[in-house]
Amino acid sequence: MKETWYFVDSGYCTPSFNMALDEALLNWHSQGIIPPILRFYGWKPAGISVGYFQKVKGKIDVDGARQHGIELVRRQTGGRAVLHDQELTYSVLVSEDHEAMPASVKEAYLVISRGLLEGFKELGIEAEFAVPEEKLQTTDSAVCFEEPSWYELIVAGKKAAGSAQTRKKGVILQHGSIPLNVDKGKLFDLFVYPNERVKERAKRTFGDKAVAINDVSKHPIRFEEAKQAFKTGFERGLQIQLEPFTLTEEQLSEVHALESKYKSEAWNFSR
C-alpha cells in the first residue's frame, strides 16, 4: 500500500506568502500535525529569490528588479538567485527520519528528484539527472541556472530545473523551479555586471547552459498542464499517493503572521 502525502495546490501567490507557507508547512510537519507534503505554486507578482547565505549588495540589481515589478525575497535554502516568473515551483517537505530518505543531502536529492524526472517523462520530454564528472566549482555568478548541481534535471545537456534543500527541525525542505519560459532580457536585468559587454556575453551564453520546458516541448505547455504532469510524476517517482489539503483559517493566519519576516529588509537584505 502506498503512503499518503498531502498535496497543497496554492496557485499564484506573492513571494513573501510563498516563502512563509513553505516555512509554516515545515513547522507543522515537524510538530507531527500533517504528514509529508508536496506543494505546487506560482508567483504573482514575479519574484527573485536569493539563497540563504547569498549577498544582495553588488550581486543583485535591486533597481532593475523594481523596474520590472519583481519582488525580492530571501529563501530558507542556500544556493544562488532564481527568477520566479513563468514557471511551476514545487516544494517537498518530509522528515529526515523517513525510511525513504537517505542521511546524505546528495542522495536525498536523488530520491526527491525522481519525481521531477517522471514529470518530464509525463510531458514527453527526455530528461536525465546531472552527474557532474568533477567536484562542483564555485563560481562568482549570482545566477542559479548557470550550472546544474548533483541530480538536478537536464535536457540535451542543459539545466531544465533547479532545486535547493535545507534541513531544519528534523525536516527536509527541498523546493525548486521548473521554468516553462525564460525571458533572458528580464533575467539579466536582475544582476550586477562590471559593464554592458560582460552582461551581453553572459546573456548569449546562457542559452547553452539552460533550457525551459517550452523550448523543448512539441506543443505549448501551460501552468495547469505542467502541474498535472509533475503531480503524476511525483506520485510515480516517490511511490506515493497524494491527498488534497486545504489550510484552515487558523493555519492561514499563521502563514500571514510569518509573511512579515519575508517582507522585512532585515531578513531579505542583511546577510
Number of strands: 11
> SSE order, as H and E?
EHEEHEEEHEEEEHHHHEHH
Strand order of the largest sheet: 7-8-9-10-6-2-1-11
The level 1 CATH classification is: Alpha Beta
The CATH homology group name: Bira Bifunctional Protein, Domain 2
Please compute the radius of gyration using only Cα atoms: 18 Å
> Approximately what portion of the residues adopt beta-strand conformation?
25-35%
Assign the CATH architecture.
Answer: 2-Layer Sandwich
Rounded mean pLDDT score: 92
Indicate the overall shape.
globular
CATH topology descriptor: BirA Bifunctional Protein, domain 2
How many structural domains?
1
Question: What's the story with the biggest beta sheet?
Answer: 8 strands, mixed
Tell me the span between the first and last alpha carbons.
45 Å
Structural class: alpha/beta
Number of helices: 9
Which spans of ≥5 residues are poorly predicted at pLDDT below 50?
Answer: 135-139
**What share of the residues lie within helices?**
25-40%
Organism: Sediminibacillus halophilus
Domain BPL/LPL catalytic: 32-242
Keywords: Ligase
Pfam family, one: LplA-B_cat
Describe the structure.
With 271 residues, the protein is α/β, with parallel strands linked by helices. About 2% of the residues have low confidence. The N and C termini lie far apart (45 Å). α1 packs across α8 and α3 packs across α7. The chain contains nine helices and eleven strands. 39% of the residues are buried. The protein has an eight-stranded mixed sheet with strand order 7-8-9-10-6-2-1-11, sandwiched between helices. Strands 4-3-5 form a three-stranded mixed sheet. It has one domain: BirA Bifunctional Protein, domain 2, CATH 3.30.930.10.
